[in-house]
Specification:
Blueprint lengths: L7 E5 L3 H12 L3 E5 L15 E2 L12 H10 L5 E3 L4 H12 L4 H15 L2 H10 L12 E5 L3 H15 L5 E4 H7 L9 E5 L3 E2 L3 H14 L3 E3 L3 E7 L2 E7 L4 E3 L2 E4 L9 H4 L6 E10 L10 E3 L4 E6 L2 E10 L9 H13 L9 E9 L6 E4 L6 E5 L5 H17 L23
Parallel strand pairs: 1-2, 1-13, 2-9, 4-17, 5-15, 13-20
Antiparallel strand pairs: 3-8, 5-7, 6-7, 10-11, 11-12, 14-17, 14-18, 15-16, 16-17, 19-20
Amino acid sequence: MQTLEKEKAVVIGGGIVGVCCALYLQREGYRVTLVDPAAPGDSTAKWSCGQMAVSEVIPLSKPGILKKIPAWLLDQKGPLALRPSALPGILPWFLRFVANARHSKIVEIAQAMTTLTENVYEDYAPLLEACSDKSLLGDRPIIEVFESAEGVVHERPHLELRKSLGFSSEELDASDIAELEPSLAGKFKSGLLFPDWRAVSDTEGFIAALTRSFIEQGGVRIREQAKRIDSVGDRATGVLLASGERIPAQQVVVAAGTGSRQFFPQLGVNIPLAGIAGYQVVLPNPGVEIRHSVIYADGGFCFAPMTRGLQIGGTIEFAGANAEPNFKRADIILEKARRILPELQVGNLEYGVGYRPFLPDTKPVIDRSPQLTNAYMAFGHGQLGLTLGATTGRLIADLVAGRPSAQDLVPFRANRFAFIGGLA
């Protein structure tokens, strides 16, 4: 009988979720190969605000979302935009999305997501301990700022729901904001401080460091495109690469974000997974000190200080499948940021876009394939890929090992979409 230490696993997708799955499988004793065509760190999570948003459990489908769609179509400069050309293709997804806007569904989703986010730091701890750089995760909380006092008032129902789930926040006035962030003094009337949130020192560097740790511990990372999961009967036997090379495996994990869609027929699922574009601008030498990761609520973006510069972004766009990036969205972010901080230095700036893998209920899929008994799915984390990377890795390792999980995984099963079909 083959021992566990000799069993091979292949993880398709080298972003934050994929590398965390690989690391946790490695901790189980598997010989793991990670497959991704991009360089380590060059993934969707690179173009995020880098926050461990542990209380961001309320879905995007908040009440009144349907009324906002016409405005999204008309205002391409808003925090949320919908390209008119994308509407026909995205409409079936939107209808399912809006179906989750009922209060009862929002509470149900938030409760389920809390069972994941409440373990974030505990799950990352062993992975970060194995990294040589001990400064990958900062120790400062996150701030959200509003232009008027009504901003916090508007958020109170959501804050109460978060509080009922065990998360805390502190209200800030203009003087509090000025003390925490001198460069923002006099610019915002109210705000919130999230003491249980943290930010990584650099999104790209964070993923790259975890990948180095994986390789140093004996893992193999292949920079190629996975083409197909090979199988015999109901068992996956390995992964075929675009080059024609075949990587044999006793266990296969698909954690490729929006790229996971190409494997749905082999996995036996039809899941409405949409890629929603999030735009970012990096200023290597911004000329302004921002101490915390700061969410500018009214502008719909975030100031995220990182070792590679000040990253400004977070605005999202429903663009449709295979759409080309519209970097005018990034220009809009930068224009708004410079209105707040006119002294920003924009030389040598870099634009980026990440396609967040969203499901209509804002919950990920963490499950075993119904068609291949030794293939597993870990995708659809939306804007919480960085936050939930390690927790997802631990849960996938539980599934692969046949071990009961501490969390109830029923809310994250793929078959919750079985009766509504896939994305048109």
